[in-house]
Amino acid sequence: MMTSYLQPIALLEMSLTCAVVFIILLQKLSSKEIPFAVRIVLALLWVNLFFWPLGMSLELPLSAYVRGVTGDLSIVTMLLLWSSMLPAAKNTPLGFKVPLALIAIAFYPLALGFGMMDPYAWGYGSIGFLIAIVLFAIVCGLVGWTKGVWIISFAIIAWAAHWHESANLWDYLLDPFLAIWALLAIPNAIYLKRREKAQSGYLFRAG
User: Fold this and answer.
1) Collapsing DSSP states into helix, strand and coil, what is residue 54?
2) Which long-range contacts (CB under 8 A, 24 or more apart) does 160-167 make?
3) Smallest Cα–Cα separation from 99: which of 178, 160, 8?
4) pLDDT at 194 over 60
5) What residue ranges do the domains of the chain occupy?
6) Contact in structure between 114 and 195 (CB atoms under 8 Å)
7) What pLDDT, on a 0 to 100 scale, did the predictor assign at position 2?
8) For a Cys-Cys bond, which of 160, 170, 172, 180 suits 155, CB 3.0-4.6 Å?
9) Res 158 pLDDT > 70
10) Rounded distance, CA 102 to CA 8, Å?
11) Phi, psi of 78 (to 5 degrees)
C-alpha cells in the first residue's frame, strides 16, 4: 500500500525535475530571458511527456527510466532546482555551497566504509544530527538566505512524514548530484573572482 502511494509521487517529482533541467539548459542556450509564463507552459508540457507512458515500445514512463539511473533525488536538490524557475530567482550563495562541499567530502568516504565512523547511521533518528541540521538552517536565516531555511525545513518535514521510501534523513538532504554541484561551485567561484579582478584591472589600467 505504501509503495503504490509513493511511486506516483516519485515519478511526478522526477518528471518535474527533468522538465526544469531542460528549461535551465534551454535558458543557457538562449540569449534572451525566457518569460515566466513560457517556462510554466514548457514545464507542463515536459512534465506530461515524462510522466505518462508514451508507447514507443516503452513499458514505463520516461521518468521511471531516469529514476532508475539516478535514484531519488534529495528534497534539497529538487527544491533548489524548482525554485530556480521562479521570477527573479537569485543564485544560491557560496556560503551554502562551501559547507555543503566540505560535508560531502567528509561524508561519502566515511559512509562507504573508509574509516571507523559511519555518519549515514546518524540519519536514522539521531537527535544530535537533527539539532545540527536545525542550527545550520538557523545560520542560513541569520545570514539572510531565508530560502535555505525553507528548503531545509521542508526536507526535515518530508523525512518526518516518510515522503520518500528512505527513512534516512541524509537522503532528504544530500545526494551525489548536489555534492558534485557544490564541489564544482568552489573552483568556478575562484575563476569568476579572478576574471572579475582581471577585467577590473584592465578597465582601470593607466593609459
Assistant:
1) coil
2) 162/2, 163/9, 163/75, 164/6, 164/10, 164/72, 164/75, 165/3, 165/6, 165/10, 165/72, 166/72, 167/124
3) 178
4) yes
5) 1-71, 73-207
6) no
7) 44
8) 172
9) yes
10) 34
11) -65, -45
Q: Is 140 exposed, middle or buried (0-12, 13-18, 19+ CB in 10 A)?
A: buried
C-alpha cell at 206: 593607466
Total count of residues recorded for the chain: 207
The three three-digit cell numbers of residue 107, written as one number: 561524508
- In the numeric block, the cell 571507523 is attached to 116
Reduced to 3 states (helix: H, G, I; strand: E, B; else coil), residue 87 is: coil
**Which amino acid, one-letter code, is at 156?**
I
The CA angle 66-77-153, to the nearest 5 degrees, is: 135
Give the model's pLDDT for residue 4: 61
Question: What confidence score (pLDDT) does residue 1 get?
Answer: 42
Please give the helix or strand (H or E) that residue 172 lies within, else none.
helix 170-173
